[in-house]
From TrEMBL:
Belongs to the thymidylate kinase family. GO terms for cellular component: cytosol. The lineage of its organism: Bacteria, Bacillati, Bacillota, Bacilli, Lactobacillales. GO terms for molecular function: ATP binding; dTMP kinase activity. This is Thymidylate kinase. It comes from Secundilactobacillus malefermentans. The gene is tmk.
Length: 217
């Protein structure tokens, strides 16, 4: 089956827990909207529509401690498929720019490496789920594990701490290492942003990278 050919642009935001990517995306959303108007959508994974959000609730529920690692990976892939079918693909086919908070790279890093079930295996599972849809651009927000976990501790309320946030540091170290390998192996697609700096600086660099990509039609 051939790769999908679409008319819009697909841009993803990635990073370990506490990197600040969601904060930055929220900060620049109005600037993006002023440039693109209705020609864009902001979405997230897992989630992005009713069915995928329900799967998200199951995945991140802190009470689901007995969830098997492969079950978790499959649930992420299922949520992603529904998200693509119902939200992302229609937008791309309509020529819109899709900004998505997390995508396949997250599954490779968190389930493949973090859960130690195999990065290649998780990538292949998601190749089936996505029919090979790859982002035009991925912005990776880089922070050391200790910095990210300290930010979570300081800034997230108890109700916002999910099941993956509660994992031990070794889990987050594996996730971080996998992200760095993905960035190294996909330098044309993945642009690394130093997210240890003040959030205003990070947001400015992010916007500049996005403007460059959007102007490259």
């Amino acid at each position: 089956m051939g790769l999908l050919k679409l008319t819009g642009k697909f841009i993803t935001f990635e990073g370990p827990d506490g990197a600040g990517k969601t904060t930055v995306l929220n900060m620049i959303s109005e600037q993006l909207r002023s440039r693109l108007g209705n020609g864009m959508i902001l979405t997230r994974e897992p989630g992005g529509n009713r069915i995928s959000e329900k799967i998200r609730e199951v995945i991140l529920d802190r009470e689901n401690t007995e969830m098997d690692a492969r079950t978790e990976a499959l649930l992420y892939a299922a949520a992603r498929r529904q998200h693509l079918a119902e939200t992302i693909l229609p937008a791309l086919n309509a020529g819109k720019v899709v900004f998505c908070d997390r995508y396949v790279d997250s599954s490779v890093a968190y389930q493949g490496a973090g859960r130690s079930i195999g990065e290649e295996e998780v990538a292949n599972m998601n190749l089936f789920a996505t029919n090979g849809l790859t982002p035009n651009l991925t912005l990776y927000f880089e922070v050391p594990v200790e910095v990210g976990l300290e930010r979570i501790k300081l800034h997230r309320t108890a109700s916002r701490v999910d099941r993956l946030d509660l994992e031990k540091q070794a889990f987050h170290e594996r996730v971080h290492a996998a992200y760095l390998e993905l960035a190294k192996a996909n330098q044309d697609r993945i642009k690394v942003i130093d997210a240890t700096r003040p959030v205003e600086e990070v947001a400015k660099e992010t916007m500049n990278l996005l403007i460059s990509e959007l102007n490259n039609q």
